[in-house]
Amino acid sequence: MPPLLTEAARLTERAPAKINLTLHVLGRRPDGYHRLESLVAFTRSGDTLSLVPGDALKLSVSGPTAPASGDPDDNLVGKAAQHLASRIEGLKLGAFHLVKNLPVAAGVGGGSSDAAAALRLLARANDLSLDDPRLLEAAAATGADVPVCLATHARMMAGIGESLGPVLKLPPLPVLIVNPRQPLATKAVFARMNIAPGVETGYGAHPKIESGIDYAALIAALKKARNDMEDAACVLAPIVGDVLAILAAAPGCKLARMSGSGSTCFALFPDCRTVARAKRTILKAHPDWWVKAAMLN
């Protein structure tokens, strides 16, 4: 009987991959943080996080990429829970279990999405509204990408992640996501960019993208944007350039770009059939790569 009761009490949230459709680095603040502007979208699957509510905070990790996820004591899931507990007296915590499917240090926000899922689970367990300002405060304290991962819907993010635009309704975006299984640290990519504190980059403005935009107009707008971290990432990990070239050459590809600080890259296609064809071709040539067909929202 106790196992059944425990299972009935289990709450589950998905922690989808975050894809930076654009990523403009506008400059570096005097405190060293980089100012960004990015259009973010999410897949419909990724990691899975569950919670059995209780008094003590615990975390266990399993799944294909669990060995690369590091010490559970340093996981952002636990850090997010602790940040929320410090803001809400008597917060009910419990035992988390994380199933890691997403690649680690890959530019798809896996750890940030896991942390956001933990905050959503704790909100459910404690009857908190998802727009409770303490959730956003805990998210921002946990990491720059965690606030945008709370809603798991497309939107603009700016600043160091604290400025969020409204949720955007984008057209269906069939996508192929490829990671060559080479980790790439965000800190190393920023260091390679070598932007001095207090300096503005002077790069072009981000194109305006409004809710309800159609597919052709969105692709045209995305082509006017960029990922400013791509060049530095390709120097540190030349395989990123290889992945981008392979995706761009796939029949039907409308746009190929790196996500975040890499090394994950993505390609947008007009339909799921061309995505599936590209996936088969790439896996045949590179069976050791992580290749995922998905739909962005």
In short:
This protein has 297 residues and is an alpha+beta fold. It has ten helices and eleven strands.
General description of the model:
- It is built from 10 helices and 11 strands.
- It is α+β, with helices and mostly antiparallel strands and 297 residues long.
- It has 2 domains: 163 residues, Ribosomal Protein S5, domain 2, CATH 3.30.230; 124 residues, Alpha-Beta Plaits.
- Strands 1, 2, 3, 4, 5, 6 and 7 form a 7-stranded mixed sheet that branches.
- The N and C termini lie far apart (40 Å).
- The relative contact order is 0.17.
- The N terminus is likely disordered.
How do the helices and strands line up, and which of them pair or pack?
Elements: H1 2-9, E1 11-20, E2 24-28, E3 34-54, E4 58-62, H2 76-85, E5 93-99, H3 110-125, H4 133-142, H5 146-149, E6 155-159, E7 163-164, E8 173-179, H6 186-193, H7 215-224, H8 230-236, H9 239-249, E9 255-258, E10 265-268, H10 272-285, E11 290-296
Parallel strand pairs: 4-5
Antiparallel strand pairs: 1-3, 2-3, 3-5, 3-6, 6-7, 8-10, 8-11, 9-10
